[in-house]
Amino acid sequence: MPRPRTYKTEAIVLKAARLGEADRLLTMFTPSLGKVRAVARGALRPKSKLAGHLEPFTRASLMLAQGRTLDVVAGAQALEAFPTLRADLERTGLAFYLAELVDRFTAEGQESYPIYALLLEALGWLDKAQKVGLARPAFELQVLRLSGHGPQLSHCLKCRAEIKGAAAFSSASGGALCPICERDAPDARPLSIAARRAMVYLQGSAFSRGARVKVPTAVEREMEGLLQGYIAYVLEQSVKSAIFLERLRREDVSAAAAPNSRPYPEGPA
Amino acid sequence: MEKGGAAPPIARLMAELTRLPGIGPKTAARLTYHLLRRPKEEAQALAEAIVALKEQTVLCSRCQNLSQADPCPLCSSPERDGGLICVVEEPLDILALERTGRYKGLYHVLHGVLSPLNGVGPDDLKVQELVERLKGGGVREVILATNPNVEGETTALYLHRLLLPLGVRLTRLARGLPMGADLEYADDVTLTQALEGRREF
Hints:
The complex is a heterodimer of chains A (269) and B (201). With 269 residues, chain A is an alpha+beta fold. Helices cover 38% and strands 21% of the residues of chain A. Chain A has two domains: 6-81, CATH 2.40.50.140; 84-254, de novo design (two linked rop proteins) (Up-down Bundle), CATH 1.20.1440.120. Chain A has a five-stranded mixed beta barrel. Chain A has a three-stranded antiparallel beta sheet with strand order 7-6-8. In chain A, a hairpin with a 4-residue loop joins strand 6 (167-170) and strand 7. The longest helix of chain B has 16 residues, at 40-55. Chain B is an alpha/beta fold and 201 residues long. In chain B, 24% of the residues are buried. In chain B, helix 1 (8-18) crosses helix 2 (25-37). Chain B has a domain at 82-175 and 186-201: Dna Topoisomerase Vi A Subunit, Chain: A, domain 2 (3-Layer(aba) Sandwich). Chain B is 43% helix and 12% strand. Chain B is built from eight helices and six strands.
């Protein structure tokens, strides 16, 4: 679609990298243009009129001007900054992870409104929900489905038999295998009944409905391990911010830190 | 970039200068020809200063700042308050804070900021050094002075959680409107904080 020289769009900032002296290179996701990259000139200067409106995980209304190589941000107004999310370490870590997933699973200029809506819903959830819940696997399964990589979980991928009991999960095959076919898949890992059911539910439900589902910690960990392996297989590389999430959890368990780590409330208390 | 006509030594310096931040090919050419016209001693002094920069600076084992001596002059000064530590991302941040002339405590340089998307974790920063320093005792307050952006905030939150059990008072630099700013262009997060942190006039 040919874009006019200047155009307006809403966007969620996925990441911001330093570019040269004082500019920021933004990677954003828009409702109708897909992933867009643009330069915010002078955004690192203290008096920048743009900077505060273009932090990662901000939904903003933008005016963009077409440049020779990259588009340039001509104006920006933050619409939603998700302040509560930003005041919490675990939720910020998750937001980094979700944004990285969207960045990795989409190509520049490839429009996908469902992915935009999913990201917006998930950031709203991380900002508002009492508990994070199953936000991570719910988002992972939805983004996989919307980008055409959703794992097949109801039937065996080899013999097509419906899966009822315990089964196996194979990243290379793209989903579940029955106990018989599993023998031919070297990368198959055990898939419990509970984890498979939860994943089927998360895949078929809207994000917020899935995120509030309660499962035992063991099931959550099982899904996490399987999905991490599957995503790394699909992307052919691991997701960097997942390492940070793991680190946070490891230290949280070992230090048994104060349960409420919100020292600087940002929103109205 | 077109370098046609320039003799190899000239082209070489131009290429080196272009790698510096804020210097493009045009500026590099101007600097190079400027140096050519100046006396040889001047070029010599510049070259020696650049070499000395790398050879004579060390990291202060206490605050991790770049310095000529270890401990650095700030850490060994009797006039600074050793019970107060200001944690900053980069050595340049110390220069900015020192310019105010209002801070009398010590510093700790992290040499970076947590950046999950770039794979920069706590082990890549001088975090453990900070913990050890605090365990040494004698510190009343730690000021978390990382930048007020997502990565700086993440780093501050992380340090808060890590340092809380050590029983030191933890504070964060205030956030508000910069001098010469315009309310109309301020973002909501900054404005909210400016309102919450308002003071008696």
